[in-house]
Structure formats: structure tokens, C-alpha cells
Amino acid sequence: MAFKAGETILNYINGRWTASVSGEVDASISPADKSLAVGYIQRSKKADLDGAAVAAKAAQMAWRKLSGPARGEYLYKVADILERRLDEVAETMTREMGKTFPEAKGETARGVAILRYYAGEGMRKIGDVIPSTDSEALMFTSRVPLGVVGVISPWNFPVAIPIWKIAPALIYGNAVLFKPASEAAVTAAKIMECFDEAKIPAGVIQMITGKGSELGQALIDHPVLNGITFTGSNQVGKRIAQSAVARGIKYQLEMGGKNPVIVAADADLEQAVEATLSGGLKSTGQKCTATSRVIVQSGIYEAFRNRLVERVQELKIGDGMDPQTWMGPCASASQYETVLSYIQKGQEEGATLLFGGTVPEQAGDGFYVTPAVFEKVTPEMTIAKEEIFGPVLALIQVETLEEALQLANDSEFGLSASIFTKNIGNMLSFINDMEAGLVRVNAESAGVELQAPFGGMKQSSSHSREQGTAAIEFFTAIKTVFIKS
Ligand SMILES: NC(=O)C1=CN([C@@H]2O[C@H](COP(=O)(O)OP(=O)(O)OC[C@H]3O[C@@H](n4cnc5c(N)ncnc54)[C@H](O)[C@@H]3O)[C@@H](O)[C@H]2O)C=CC1
Ligand SMILES: O=C(O)CCC(=O)C(=O)O
To answer: Counting ligands in written order, which one lies closest to the CA of residue 107?
Structure first.
């Protein structure tokens, strides 16, 4: 089955596309043109979840008995299908949440690569032999699946984030109950179509759509769950942690960022400007790793600011399907309102708006805003503290690298951070002292590599890591085995 534009997206339960008991739907509006519904998303209820839970439990028993390589074969098949359908999936993503078509294609290709990476993990070791104090015994560890795992995903990476949670969950023998963000559920259904086409056993992976506050909460509270993995806002993440602790199940959270970039006086100007544009404004600034605070040493401040504003003025804003477009719209009405309110707050609190923050004249009837560049931003201002999740850059001028580092660390978040410098001493100070899970030198703050651990410090995550070999830590439990004849 392949859903067509404008259709109602059904739940994928026990290997079948299934209507919700509720009969209620919400439109998934195209952010590039508010008059278009990309599809209709069901408001599923607990009764829908109950059916899926029974199927998940039964399916997991058989799935865990398959060998790792056999589970990997299914993931290889899904990867091949997703690769064949790459343009179609990417176009759905662009139409549904607004990122440009080349970015959507890149993300979908990343989804293919993640599936292949974890398919390969099915062949790798899942334990260690440990010398016992008893010379006649054999002691070793093995990894066992958690059981049924819930995946709650956001709308900003509708393919990569679900896949980097679902693929490791499956390869290590878990069954998955997947609740995508409603703003990206048409794209999520495309991923499910690939699993369906690969004939993954019924019940092993299931998708149910619905409102976060209702279905999401019902999922976390469901007794069938043995673990929950979440990416999204801090507010929701904290609630999930509380519910998971109350029930004694494992949880993993990846949440917000307020990512700084430090531009040292000796930085390569063009490199720093281009990386700030790309890290701060690609995907309309809607990445948890997006550059938000730009901390610049006074020796290079004026040149950097002028060149940055010059380049921002050149960026073409428009429909992500238009090949001329550099930056698409905000993903939803609420995201758009949030971004505009932060821009207003920045001005009210005394920052200087150098450029942008307006509705572009030539753009269509969508959630478009021109990228905003502020200067004279001070650490106590709201735009220097809170995650905006939009195309807004806050310039902060400093004298010394020590001051830059102190300001960079003056945040409740600690996800990603970059420095631009040619000085090895600056690099080492930054690497050692920056409180962030991802630190990058002469590279933009956004962008993660699927084979490396990803996660934040402070309020940015549950202090766990996703992706790469780190994923095994969350999706399995260690069993220590002692054998003696
Ligand atoms: N770290 C990241 O990558 C992301 C951060 N955000 C931040 O969150 C802000 C708001 O975006 P939202 O889409 O509203 O994020 P959100 O945290 O509300 O939504 C993320 C996911 O959680 C679900 N959800 C919502 N309420 C829930 C609940 N009570 N229980 C269980 N699941 C629930 C949603 O349906 C969605 O699937 C953004 O402006 C941004 O600052 C949003 C998306 C991704
Ligand atoms: O920068 C990236 O590629 C990943 C960002 C991310 O995980 C997020 O925005 O949630």
C-alpha cells in the first residue's frame, strides 16, 4: 500500500493498515501553502494502542529468537526499498514539514545508511568473556532485548530520527510501538510502507498516530512498554522521564539545545560565516544542533558581522520544492508564531535587529520568515537563553577566549558547540572546557554522523547517547553468565 497525497493515514498495526476507533482526524498542513493538506492524521485512542500492544508482545517473542544476522536481513531489505523510493519519500517530507528538497533527500539517504549500519550490527559481538576467579568456569556477558520499546519522535527529522531509534531497537531483538509527530506523520507512514514491503513479521514494528498529550501519554503509561525513547521538547521529555521512573522502565531523552559558536580573532572569516549560515539557518533553524548564539572576538567582530549580514540578505526563502530556494518555511503555524514572538521579544529586550525577522514579500501563503540577525545580545536576554528552534542568530561580542567560553557555557543546555580558530591552544581549551556532548572545531554546530555517539550534557538529554555503537546501551540489558560443568 502507498498513501496518496491528501489521504487519511491509517495506523500500521499487526501488519495491517488499520482505521482508528475514533474516526477523528487532523489535517497535516503544508507549511509552504496553508491551503494544502498533505494528508489527514488519525487521532487514535488507547483502544487502538491496546490492540497494538498485544500484537507487539506476541511478535517480540518470535523476533528475539531470530539470529542477529536474520534480523539484519530485514533491515537491509528496508534500506533497499527506502533507497528506491528516496525521491518520493523526500518530496513528501518537503511538502509536509518544509525543509528543502535537497536537504530532505540528504536526510532520507542518511536513513538508508542508518538502516544498513544497524543491519551490520546484527553480525557483531554482543558480549565479552571475563576471567572468572574459578579456573574451571566460563564467565561471559550477553545482551538481551528490553522487550517492547516505545518511540516518540519529533517533526524536524521525520525520517532520520525515527530510523535511528527503530533500527537499533529492532536489530537487538525488541518490538517497537512508534508514535510519530502528527506534523510529520505522512512521511512516517512512508517509512512504515518500506517495512511493510520488506515483509517484516507482523507486530514487530507498528505505527500509531495521535495527539501527543493523549496518545503519547497513553503510550508511556501502557504496561506493555519496557522502554521509551524520545526526541522533542524539554517540557515533554521531563514528563516522560517522570512517568518512566514511576513505572520503573528504561528511558532515553534527546531534547533541546542553545548551541554556541565561538569565532576567535584568528578564524578564517569565510569559513566561519558560511558555517554559521549553514549551522544556524539550514532546515529553517529547526535542528536541536542548530547554531543559536554566535560569540565573536572583538578583533574580527565587525568584519564577521558585516559579511554575515551580507550573506543572509542573499538567501532565497521560499517553497522547499523550488530548486532556487535556500531556506524553506517554518514547519507549522505554532512554530511560526513561536519564532515571530521570540523576534519581537529580542527587540523589546533591547537587542538590535540587524536584518530579517519579517515576512518575505515574494513568498507564498506559507509560514515564511526571513532569517533574523540580532546584535548587542546580552546573556540575560530571552533570545540568549531559550531554545527558539527557528532562523534567528544572536551575535555577542567578547574580548577574550576565556570570556567566550564562559558565555558559551552559561546555558542550561549542552548539546553541540563549535569554535572557529587556527590556534591549537584555543582548540584545546575549547575541547577541554566546553560543556557539550558534541564539540566541533572549524565545522558547523549542526550535523551528526550516524556511526558516532550523539547526545547532550546538562538539560539536553537524559545523559545517555544514541547512534553508533552507543545505541546498544539503551536497547539491551546485560546478562552476566557463569557456567561450570
Ligand atoms: N530536540 C529536538 O530535536 C526537538 C525540539 N523541539 C522543541 O520543542 C518545541 C515544541 O515542539 P513540539 O513539536 O511541540 O515538541 P513536542 O515535544 O511537543 O513533540 C515531540 C513529540 O512528543 C509528542 N508529545 C507531545 N506531548 C506529549 C506528551 N504529553 N506525552 C507524550 N508525547 C508527547 C509529540 O506528539 C511528538 O511526537 C520546539 O519549538 C523546539 O524548541 C521540538 C522538536 C524536536
Ligand atoms: O544535526 C543533526 O543532523 C541532527 C539534529 C537532531 O538530532 C535534532 O534536531 O533533533
So the answer is: 2
